[in-house]
Amino acid sequence: MLLITSSGNERLKAARRVRDGTDRTRLFIEGERLAREALEAGLTLEQAFFTEAFAVDHAELTRAAEKATAEQAKLSEATMRSLGDTQHPQGIVLVAQRPQREADHFWQSLPASALLLALDGVQDPGNVGTLIRAAEAAGASAVVLLPGCADAFSPKVLRGAMGSAFRLPLLSLASFDELMDRATAQSLLLTAAAAGGDSHRDFDWLPGQVLVLGNEGRGIPAEHLAHCQRRVSIPLQKPVESLNVASAGAVLLFEAAAQRQAAGQAVS
To answer: What pTM does this model have?
Structure first.
């Protein structure tokens, strides 16, 4: 196996471009847990970087990653620190191809009762990652990312999603108009999480729909809100005025899941 001790190595430069978002065709996967999730999800892996200590302590995972990748290299601890995106790298980085989905086929194959989550300008990577994980846990069919959102496959989002981004369909659309067209074609309602809506517990979550969450500070733009057929809100005890978008999204998704399960209806 190749040994790399220089942070200026060309392979590491290419991997950093993935890490930093310059190369958006591939994924930068760091850490033991995400590496295991990537292998279990069957992603197409291209490169694997380990430290000697990691290879010794996690021999089974290292062997599995070696078999799944065309190129492997051992790094010194200092070189791994120069590559990693975290403050204390665990000793493994994988580079993989981004999952690809045929959009038309996905939308056309949705069941009539499908529940999707759409993020409209959610910028914080931690929030996007948490919402992706919550959507999978609640049984949603997909997460739709509209312009202004954090990159769903950035290292910080992947860590927040904890593997869900490898399994749950993540669909990027060019505009809110495209979301409206897709939803209309599949007879899905647009449900806005916004002030003045029906209480989430009294809300009818059974129809097929797209739950739209807005930007952390501004919410859903007024011009987008006007095209949503329904609004849902979470009643809060004073003096609390609002919830973090990831917390609110999780509450709404799990209320939808509870209603659908009580009705004997599959979520996705």
So the answer is: 0.94
